[in-house]
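Predict the structure of Polyprenyl synthetase family protein.
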Amino acid sequence: MTDTDNLLEKFNNYLSSLLEYDDSPQHKVIDSMKYSLFSGGKRIRPMLTLLTYSEFSSEEDSFDKILPFAAAIEMIHTYSLIHDDLPAMDNDDFRREKPTNHKVYTEGIATLAGDGLLNMSMEILLRHIENLEDKDDLKRAIRAMKYIYNATGVNGMIGGQTIDIDFKVADYNEDICENMYKLKTGALIKASVVVGGIIAGVEADNITKLSKFGENIGLAYQYEDDLLDEDKDPDSGEINMLFFKEKEDLKNEIVDLTNSSYEALEGLELKDNLLKSFVAKLINRSR
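Done. Here is the predicted structure for Polyprenyl synthetase family protein.
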């Protein structure tokens, strides 16, 4: 296995250990949480967190400080997908070629499963922070936690989802669509990168560079999704950037965003090319 494969296996084992519950009266909501959390997701966001940390951390092969943050990010992402699929939002029947959570566990349980994952993300981080003894580690952990929840709140992911469900197709323009992408998808991807840097002890000026890197790849990633979903029907009520740009123009913009993301890393001392390699595959999925 590659180093990335080993890291992914380590993460999945850690994530699995967080949901080892005995049978209980509330087991159905726990089963529902696990159903979506282990439904075949690519773990893109936690891998960005782990790889960024790996690039900049001085602690060889130690991921104890970063795994709780990677897990919290994946739980937040998964909760957003469960809620996104609900009838009140996108009303989807399938995700990753499997029935959506509410189709298996009912709308009520699916809603609670999303709530449970969001709450558990905070429980994991607070438990981790409570056990930190080093003052600098504690400060970095609090900063990282603050960054995650700012990125996923009403000025981030939730805000983007609001635009997505509140605006009719006829009300959209290119700028609104791009802003929705930056909030709904890009904010958590950017946070995934930045948090890895914060916990690794990256200085403030270089965190700014990582933020720019994360912002660019977040937008490029969503544009790649648009290319993969180019057959979407405008009458479906779902919007994408191909409503405003030609396919070749969007491909060129992805190239520009990718180049800008790599330029943002100039001057940073990277241990290896795992992060860049991972990103290159991530934003070339339609090729």
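The longest strand covers residues 94-95.
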